[in-house]
Amino acid sequence: MNMPVGTLAITEALWFSLHAVAAARLRTAMMTLAMAIGVAAVVLLTALGEGARNYVLGEFASLGSNVLTVIPGRSETTGGAPLMLGITPRDLTLDDALSLRRSSLIAAVAPIVVGGAPAAYGARSREVNVIGSTAELRRIRHLELERGRFLPAGDPFAAGAVCVIGSRLRDELFGHARALGEILRIGDRRFRVIGILAPKGQSMGLDMSDVAIIPVAAAQALFDTHSMFRVLVEVRSRDALPAAKRRIEAIIAARHEGENDVTLISLDAILATFDRIFTALTLTVAGIAGISLIVAGILIMNVMLVSVSQRTAEIGLLKALGAPPRIIERLFLVEAGLLSMFGCALGLATGYGGIFALELAFPRFPLTAPLWAALAGIGVALLSGLLFGVLPARRAARLDPVQALAKH
């Protein structure tokens, strides 16, 4: 059966290029490795960028998308973080926080007092982050207990002498001894341990395995303060967030002589900000990695230019046998394409192998290379290989057959 001329030419070009690639193993290894490094860098760096993005978004999303954070002080929109720019004309008090419960839009309110104090049990002591709050903190922050119970519901103004501690703090102060029911000294006060938090990681900027949670009134007495560090508000539904914001501002303004001197931050806004930041970072590192593919393409061009000078007799023989310039060009372009494909395959294998290894080493960090990154890496690799293969191909096609056979 006769094969079409176009198909035959392409098949022969592939066989010719494969033989040429196999004959020059060192040259092939160098160009393949250069392209593979570029593709692997694109896959790995975008996976790290996407992993960081997904990790941060997951940590925030686990706190609930219908939670508002009330910060004392009004922050102007100046491009900076509200946490740093707020000016507080008056404190955000426990009464202010509890007054928010009057709104039907609000499901739970957790006033927060944060400070550092020495914690001691027996002969062991260390500095610890102390969070003062109410029973609602567990619901809003989705805290889980390893054992025991959380702060009891009741009068927020009652300075109960109970505490819930993180698992690391338990290990460092109590060791293998039983912690539940024991007395823990925090600062100059004594608290009975009633619960131990399950490992959770970061929350509110604190390592929850290394904290002590006490009643908010007890924290106010411990740190001699009346002001709340934050007030966490859980809205009944995500759709009610805008109305809840307006209601919270109105309640606080009514209590603060008509002045709106608090800043409200929703997790949606924080999530959107982090999403934009990490997306930009992912695209940036992908672009940086893509530059290495351009460099690899330039390497292919330079090595193939040397190859043209080394294979002049071979090119001259092909021309003497009647091969037109376009066939010569096609042979070298196919060779450049093959080298790029080999590099892509090796790069993808290396990149995804690296992701697998990192997932084994850091199982809590979600590493996933987006499909667009792999496709973009392959596309840029093939494009740069073919683009930079044009010049050597044209130089080979323009060689005079007589001079080429004479190796001039």
Automatic annotation (TrEMBL):
Record's bilayer topology term: Multi-pass membrane protein
Keywords noted in UniProt = Cell membrane, Membrane, Transmembrane, Transmembrane helix
Region forming the signal peptide: none
Q: Name one GO molecular function term.
A: transmembrane transporter activity
Q: Which residues form the ABC3 transporter permease C-terminal domain?
A: 288-401
Per the record, its GO cellular-component terms are: plasma membrane
Q: Which InterPro entries match?
A: ABC3_permease_C, MacB_PCD, Macrolide_Exporter_MacB
Name of the molecule in the record: Peptide ABC transporter permease
What lineage does the source organism belong to?
Bacteria, Pseudomonadati, Pseudomonadota, Gammaproteobacteria, Chromatiales
